[in-house]
Fold this protein.
Amino acid sequence: MAGTQRYLRYIVFALICLILLFFISSSSTVQTSWPTANVPQTTEPDTKGAVPKPDPLATDSNPPKTPNVDKELPPAIVPGDRMNATFVTLARNSDLWEIAKSIRHVEDRFNRKFNYDWVFLNDDDFNDEFKKVTTALVSGRTRYGKIPKEHWSFPDFIDQDKAAKVREEMKEKKIIYGDSVSYRHMCRYESGFFFRHPLMLEYEWYWRVEPSIELYCDINYDTFKWMAENKKKYSFVLSLYEYVETIPTLWEAAKNFSAHHPEHIAKDNSMKFLSDDDGKTYTNCHFWSNFEIGNLNWLRSKAYVDFFESLDHAGGFFYERWGDAPVHSIAAGLMLNKDEIHFFNDIAYYHVPFTHCPTGEQYRLDHKCHCNPKENFDWNGYSCTARFYETNGMQKPEGYDKEK
Ligand SMILES: Nc1nc2c(ncn2[C@@H]2O[C@H](COP(=O)(O)OP(=O)(O)OP(=O)(O)O)[C@@H](O)[C@H]2O)c(=O)[nH]1
Ligand SMILES: *[C@@H]1O[C@H](CO)[C@@H](O)[C@H](O)[C@H]1NC(C)=O
Ligand SMILES: *[C@@H]1O[C@H](CO)[C@@H](O)[C@H](O)[C@H]1NC(C)=O
Ligand SMILES: [Mg+2]
């Protein structure tokens, strides 16, 4: 008896399941058939005999309801005042798609919340495509400047034959960009002129962005405001040793400048970062200048401009291949007080071939970072960041020794 009852119970249960299944499947048929009910009727003959697809962009009187292509959520913009600041990029028209990638990273991780302006500078005219695409990508105002010829050519005190001979020699030695004239103009421009471009005169703070960079973590605060409130003038995310063949006499030129202009040398400077023997020789340590957030009024100060002019006359931008990174770094190291230079551990960054991925897992999780901490360059022997920490008596972040 008990066996038959259990058997019956199974049959009733199975029946209920079947009925339920029928209802679920029939209601989902109703749902899947819904979008086709909105397809606009076409009276055109269908030559291939296929069912016409709905055009999602059609502006018909009876448009499809999904996808909702022309509406997006309003951007989440951080309220409050903005700083007198801009992004700045030096680029050629041919850099368009590489700078487009960089802009997308900067916008997604930071600027969509702040909408700062973006200044583009070029020794040539920007073409319409460059302007159209970059304007579409930047949330702030975009501005395009042409570099005056005087800022992108050989100064008259440079011996052109001597400079050409150096390029030949560097080419033979296979020094990267060693035979390039334009690379030298670029380095000299970034060292001495970008901050004096008429468009840049309108701002006090800049953030330099190069093509093909990446940002790996959300930046949820105004970095420009942070710099101002904490009295910083210059900042970096990666530091390393310069390729010494490109700057054999740069330190001598910097020492000559210091001797002639003791008034420009900061009391609490970063000599320990720049030199192991109290200034006799250079460590070759520099802040990597393809990323910089800094104060333009400092670069426009008499101290910095005197420094640049002294180096420019020494000729090394053309007779060697001085980069703007060691030039900015030596200037900051000698003429700013230590606490005016900031290491942005929280700005996760990539420029080929190095990555700065913040040390500290909790930070990376909280800021949705997507960099691989194993790729962090900071505690590698070729980085100067540990030296920066030591120069400034700063405690290294927890877990740094596991990343060495
Ligand atoms: N307008 C213009 N911009 C240039 C020129 N050469 C370089 N740049 C820009 O100057 C910056 C530095 O040049 P890069 O070619 O990136 O130099 P780099 O970072 O030392 O080397 P990469 O490893 O190739 O990135 C970038 O923003 C370039 O777009 C040039 O001849 N004209
Ligand atoms: C921004 O800074 C520049 C340079 O210091 C200055 O000339 C300009 O007046 C400032 N603009 C505003 C709106 O404060
Ligand atoms: C040394 O610096 C002074 C002052 O800046 C400059 O006039 C002179 O040309 C420099 N000498 C050399 C060899 O660079
Ligand atoms: Mg670059």
In short: The domain at 85-392 is CATH 3.90.550.10 (Spore Coat Polysaccharide Biosynthesis Protein SpsA; Chain A). Residues 152 and 338 are 32 Å apart (CA to CA). The first helix runs from residue 2 to 33. Residues 26-52 have pLDDT under 50 and may be disordered.
